[in-house]
Amino acid sequence: MTTPTPTETTPVIPLPLTTARIITAAGAALTILSTFLAWTWTTAFPGNLTVTGYPGGLQILTLIGGILTLAFTLSAWRTPGLTWLTPTGGNNATAYLAAGTLATTWYTLIAIADQLGGLANLEPGGYIAAATTLTALLGALAHPIDRRTAASLPQHGRLHTGALGKALHGIYRTVRPGRTPRPLRPARPLPAWAEILIIAAAFGIALYTVTYGIDTEYGELFTGFLILVSFAAAALFKAGLIARLATLTNKHRNISIAAAFAAAAAFPFTQSTDQYTLIAVNILIFATVALGLNVVVGLAGLLDLGYVAFLGVGAYTAALVSGSTASTLDVHFPFWAAALTGAAASLVFGVIIGAPTLRLRGDYLAIVTLGFGEIFRITVENLDGNSGPSVTNGPNGIPNIPDLVLFGYSFGTPHDVAGTTLTPFANYYLLMLLITILVVLVFSRAGNSRIGRAWIAIREDETAATASGINSFRLKLLAFALGATLAGLAGTVQAHVTSTAVPEQYVFAGPVPPNSAFLLAAVILGGMGTISGPLLGAALLYLIPAKLQFLQDYQLLAFGLALILLMRLRPEGIIPNRRQQLEYHDTGQLDVPDRDLPPGTVGVTKAGA
Amino acid sequence: MTTTTTTETPVLTATGVTMRFGGLTAVRAVDLSVHPHEIVGLIGPNGAGKTTFFNCLTGLYVPTSGKVAYKNTTLPPKPHLVAKAGIARTFQNIRLFANMTVLENVLVGHHTRTKEGLFAALLRGPAFHRAEKASTQRAQELLEFTGLTPKADHLARNLPYGEQRKLEIARALAGDPGLLLLDEPTAGMNPQETRATQQLVFAIRDQGTAVLVIEHDMRFIFNLCDRVAVLVQGEKLTEGTTDAVQADERVIAAYLGTPFEGAPGADEIAEVEAAEAAETAGAAENAETATPPDTVARPEDNQ
Fold it and tell me: What InterPro entries does the record tag this protein with (chain B) (predicted)?
């Protein structure tokens, strides 16, 4: 799975290299031109693709794809001034970009034909775009690209049935995309200010991309965006730009972190309405809780399937002390006190649930935490004054949670700051961002310390960890309690953002993230044990259902399929952690002998335990 | 039988350690003591209970009866407390933290000698940085000692087998133990690696850590140990110097078995061998003329 596969550098389509480059460059250039033509005759398809001379909607994505393809083709051709784009010197980036442009364009055309009822609705410009993107891709495939040798392909047997399956498998067997990274060319030394400018520019582009994704107004645009961004990200990775940027951010660590959060904090200033800021603040809540879960799952290796309960404890605590008219407690704490109370209540629940359950390992722990997660919801539903003491109003929850006021700054009203209006959700977004920063800080500092190493050791081999002097029960409880506290803290903000706390928000699996299943999925999808992984995973898992309305009915099905595909193709998640990356560095070395020991060998079991 | 005439307190005193799994008594009333600056071997045929005894010593098993003391302090049967007291161990089947780097593996071994908790890690005060630096320095010393320095940033899983064994020893030493328990440290090693391990164990002893080692390689054991204890079917058969143990007939019997009553004498063996030789010669003469015997059933005929 992670061992380097033998690669060869041959074109898929045999053509002279110069011819291939001319074809690709011409294809990309014509693609750019084709976006200025009309693709359809009516504005019934969203985004207005009817105007000649002015690209709109999805045409802009094709335009960007075309520009990038052209730039990387010329870069691989060693065009002066553009060589910095491909530090690896390979041609794979061109191929990925050409494929991404083709996919976005053809998706657009198919969507037009599908929505408006037939290919007749395409204007000649659409056909030209289809042809030019195909030309660019064929040209890119005639470049010498790194791919696996035919002999190294796994033999799959006869599982690929159906025309589509056969076709996809055929394409895969023809192209054989390689996975082994190429070495980078040595970087040209730059002055420190230039490096910092590059970092700032990179985060600026990232902010723009994310903002564009959140601001997409219709599902087709979001799908096209997702396709192009995925291929472009793969291309940047293959080109070595990501690795180069990572060297820079490691060198200027503090500046990079500051730049990242400055970019995140700049988001609400780009918004004039609350519509997308609400999405953004929900993504932040989801991501922060996922990062908290990553302490438990990613570092300590404890599979917690009831994690959302801790978010619920925090939210309910904050709701009870918020001064809401529906609250059974007649108190109104200031926010800092409410946040501390919520976090503390979660901590207590974490210890109460953790102390008996953490004596279990693996699957048993997962089942018990799943049970506790449901027990929390059912208990909250029953504390309504009829079935139990009156605390939570049962299924009705606690509505009318008042808006926060911090140091006289009311979160419920718009404020004018630096020429832009900060809407109520923008205020909450900035508050939540502070909490996200806090959680990121806690995660990175705890993870990179004696305690964090002990957690990872427990995850790797609990018996060996205890034999090395680690009190595994105490440390597991610490991880569980820390995770619970962080979720509780996020919950206190969530209660104010949604202005209600109802039991339905805190289920194992439901239509709206965050819930336990989606939290876990965000961690696994993004990459366990990393900081950026759960943030990215949470953003994707929140945005995709929010943007693609047609998926709503099939959401859990699509989600399950996506997880299966991910486990098959990239089990380490989108962003693998440092340790898994290290596996690529040491090649040709022995693996650990089989770690599944026969029962009864050294210390597999502990008598009386 | 102890030949060491030391007056120092023993680092390990096991008295009457018994481990019973249901009806099976894996270890029966074993007494053993190890003194500082001593290398003691623990040998015995497969299934004699050596590893079970180790697990009782390190708290992985709670012995049915008996007690284990480190420097005259009775140890509770909790692995992390045993490690904290000063007994470190390696495992028969290597148990490294496969997805941690070599350096991190050793740092985990140092866990019990440091105190920095979660809040220290979150606040990152000067004391935290000092402690981290000291731990890293100690870990690097141990990597230097075991010759793993060039591999410090590799993942443990990517080390070759012999170096994984070394890393396990380095991790155990990182807990600054007074006694190191090695469970078959040279299993699967070639002679060169075995010799290197022998040098390493001597070096560990010279640094002041007593060693108790389980091993099947007798040359290794007899070169290395000051004293050897023999465990057979859960009971300690004998204990003494390498020479005394090597000469002990009961030990030979435990490994090779005893001749049974009606065992053939030398004359009978010679007679049988002569008869066999004559038969082979006769068969060779007939081989050219004789057809293959039809009576030999081919495998498919048996169906």
Answer: AAA+_ATPase, ABC_AA/LPS_Transport, ABC_transporter-like_ATP-bd, BCA_ABC_TP_C, P-loop_NTPase
